[in-house]
């Protein structure tokens, strides 16, 4: 009994240390977003004269609401498509007897390790030729292609860990392969799906150089690009940047908090059944 | 590579159960292609051209003009320029060292964080939510946040060092300090990524094995080292590999924090590639930087997988 | 092999020819009177980063007044990234990809040779007659020219100044320094009297701004980084070593903070506006900024003068020219309207707005000499007396040359290499860049 309590105490202290390390820079960002132009150059831990001027500036001087919407559309579409395509590909590469699986996995790896800066210009030419510059679908397609390799790798890995007996019994029950994947495999691999999904969403939400290049029109710009427009020739308006970033972080924070239960149970579900 | 195979005609879907046993294997192979073809096609359609084009540029005299790219003849000069340049080797060395150090630190910390997360009950969801935030912060902004923290005039880092008696530290002023400062920012942002991947792996482990070891009288430490860690290998391998990829592509932090300075001491390969491509408009050598980086990372990844004894695509049965 | 397909090219050639005909037609009809409205019409997009004060967007004022003067032309403002390297990367990708999503774009003053060589900007000689260029100083026109073609018109220019604390000099009974040696002595004195924490701040980070600062110090000592015809490096000279040794001495003597090797404009300025430094080398904007109540703690205490030079040289010291130009996208579909816009933007009305509301030095000499304009900003009369010097941006490989300069000078300033070896490294890297056979 005493030993377990001591263990819990240790865990809790560790958790607090982790939380502090993660939270302090974030706190610094949010606190600074409430600092005015004078206080922003001070290291005061609490804004001496709190102001929301930075938030007003981000929304009134720039089309920030629109950028938020664009990022949301692009990130959600990308995540849904990546998970949809990635699940089936990952399952096939983990389970089905195809020849050349090793080559496929290596090819995917090679593709995902090619530096993005080098493919931006040719990618621009490609999307210009199909007429998808300044559009949602152009970005979604590019992001899907860029993020699929990693998701396939993750998902395949998780599928490999699922006992085969379950598929066998599903097949005996007369379930088709698509139904087997959706009804039997997916629930088992929720943690992997979650990992791949969060990775994709975040990557699409934060990507900069491709969004900057493909979508030059203001009505299709994403947040990451929007924030890079802030400021003048010689100034980095930290207050405004932090205010905008805090707002950009909010949807993700809410999403994670709302799905906190689902995420945790998704993660534990795998453990219980596995 | 084999991605062209993906164009094989898709078989009938949803007919798996009613097949005769002899054709089952062949049909499920076809099913495999049908399942993976859409994903592979998207990847191939979007990325094969840019990558091939980039590689072609790296072997050509390239002139970027207002009318597109002119390729003026094959050459190996782009690579000989690179390999003959001290700056390239320095940047490679820096990127490699930075990758080894940060990925190692992040893997160790990430695994520890995952273990802590696993043992938490009520607080787990909250801590996970918090962990996701730095990672979801736009990369450029995160670099700017750290630039603000490390600012030589009013940065809070200086204030903290001053309060413990270290004055005029000039955080970004020396190569070593600037590298460490970048490493801290990197660890802060990406350890959560590792932690979540490891946690997802941890909870997928079959409970019976651990239970059996516990009954055999093994303590928690032993169970972790001897039983769980080996089982975690695939999850860890994927995490390490993709961290290597990301770390080798290190760009935003040196771009915003140091501009590669002092001198070029914290210039990464990706930053070099960016400068050569878009500041100097030397697309031949720039593409060569990118292509050679890709080959180096590939070799590192494959070596790593070999050492880690995780096959890339082990054939099932 | 070309990536752009044939059909596009033909289409573009036809449009270009048509527009060219149109352009010459209109320039012959009404170049002398800018108010010649109605010659061109349509909508054009101006891709521009923010300049001038952050409180009012002077670009919008300019557009509104232009549209009043040219009611048939509408101008869309497309906001560009504030970081100039990021901005250039997206310009290059889009223009080389044949984009016509913007017609006129802002570009740095050091880009004409590079953009001209790569035909990323429309050559302007056939659209502007020679009398047009006479409104600008000769040096300015030279900076826009590559291979006898002009690739941009100047939007506004920028100069460097020495900003100093009037109150501190008065308290210590010291004169405004006219040589760098004097500046260092006075700064040290102010520090030892306990009046101020640091003596001098400038932009010594490893970036383009250091190339500006370096060019000034070097010119004061009688050195240049590249020879006049842009064929050879001249950076490894005794004069250059004198300049670099002096700069390093500012740091090692404690007159400048050690962190100056990580300073860009913003850090150096905030050190000044927070009252922690006596002398500051910075651009025009710093005067208005440091006199803005609410952001600055030194309002009313700021003096501005020409930069000092080294002892034994005739003063004042050199200032490099900064600022931004207007370029035309070669794929623009409405060059006639673009040309009207460029002409108006470099005319008296726009340049007066630029000076009075934008806080930027006008490119038209007569506007800068105007008494009312001069009264609007104490830096302008000083600017009129500035001795100007350009960075070696007349060579198309300028960006590599600048990298060679700021990387090595920064390394020497931060003490990791000696001034001598930094200069010889810069020398060989510049020569490699000029020969176009290296990184």
Task: Describe the structure concisely for a colleague.
Chain B is mainly α. Chain B contains 12 helices and 2 strands, in the order αββααααααααααα.
Plain-language structure description:
The complex is a heterotrimer of chains A (274), B (317) and C (439). With 274 residues, chain A is mainly α. Chain A is built from 13 helices and no strands. Chain B is mainly alpha-helical and 317 residues long. With 439 residues, chain C is of the alpha/beta class. Chain C has helices at 6-30, 58-69, 84-96, 112-117, 130-133, 138-144, 166-171, 180-192, 208-220, 238-252, 265-273, 285-290, 335-345, 348-356, 365-369, 371-376, 379-384, 398-413, 419-434; strands spanning 42-48, 73-79, 104-108, 145-146, 149-150, 153-158, 160-165, 198-201, 277-283, 302-305, 318-320, 322-328, 387-389. Mean pLDDT of chain C is 90; it is low at 1-37.
Order of helices and strands of chain B: HEEHHHHHHHHHHH
Principal-axes shape call of chain B: flat
Helix content of chain C: 40-55%
Strand content of chain C: 5-15%
Which structural class matches the secondary elements of chain C? alpha/beta
Q: What share of residues of chain B is helical?
A: over 70%
| Biggest interface, CB < 8 A | A-B, 116 and 117 residues
The N- and C-terminal alpha carbons of chain C lie at a distance of: 25 Å
- Uncertain runs of chain C are 1-37
